[in-house]
Amino acid sequence: MDFECLVVGAGPAGLSAALTLGRARRSVLVLDSGKPRNYAAREMHGVLGHDGLPPAELRARGVEEVGRYGIEVRPAEVGEARAIEGGVEVDGITARTLILATGMLDATPDVEGFDAIYGISAHTCPYCDGWEHADQRLAVLAGPEAAEHMGPLLRQWSSDVIVFSPGLEADIGVPVVREPITRFVSTDCRLTSIELDGRDPIERDALFFNIAMHPRSALAIQLGCTLTEAGFVESAAADRQTTVDRVYAVGNCADPMLNVPMSIADGARAAVFVNVRLVGEGIVQPV
């Protein structure tokens, strides 16, 4: 085998897994497409010791840190993966184990003016960005099911919350606007108002949205991993192994609810179980 573990994805989960394995003297290669979920975010919050750090800086630090243990983070758009005798093969590279940390993508509104505010005054996670917009005029854009959760939740950060959800019929205790949004108006990337079809604009300062989440699970499908109904990779809670032997899934490709610190922990957890497995197989020679 070329490596003891291949990690696909150099986000918080993947780099955390690589770091833990590197410190366990395992031979590891990380393959990364360079397309992180939080590419639009200027800062990340709620990460102990790194509150307010740009996501790109966390990644750069992570790449440098795993490099201290001889781990390469190689730019690659992985195309093929398959299970082989005693391991896995990914684009011709073989390893005894594989950790999928491929993440997911957030569907964004196809509305004029959105790109200007994304990552600055338009966000997906109130735990990550709610504090910066506390007591402001907040908008929630989501489908009915997500809106029923997000609308009341955002009231923890502001008493002035309006939900924009054309299909929502339930009374959720928060004002609901059902007319379609036609434009986000902003100044210096800061949302100022939302224009609607057939209704006067509504002044808002920030937007939190949840339209759809698309897991990057193509490799998992190739490998034959079982997916959840929503398309995420099914992995065991204890060790994060998928339904395919020697293949593990961590971070947002397996659980859309994980933020950065949760993903870091998820990657480290899987790495510990990978190392324990390799030791159990008698593979204890240091790299």
UniProtKB/TrEMBL annotation:
A Pfam family matched in the record: Pyr_redox_2
Keywords: Flavoprotein, Oxidoreductase
Reactions catalysed according to its record: [thioredoxin]-dithiol + NADP(+) = [thioredoxin]-disulfide + NADPH + H(+)
Signal peptide: none
Domain of life: Bacteria
InterPro entries in the cross-refs: FAD/NAD-bd_sf, FAD/NAD-binding_dom, Ferredoxin-NADP_redctase_2
Name this polypeptide is given: NAD(P)/FAD-dependent oxidoreductase
Native species: Solirubrobacter ginsenosidimutans
Lineage: Bacteria, Bacillati, Actinomycetota, Thermoleophilia, Solirubrobacterales
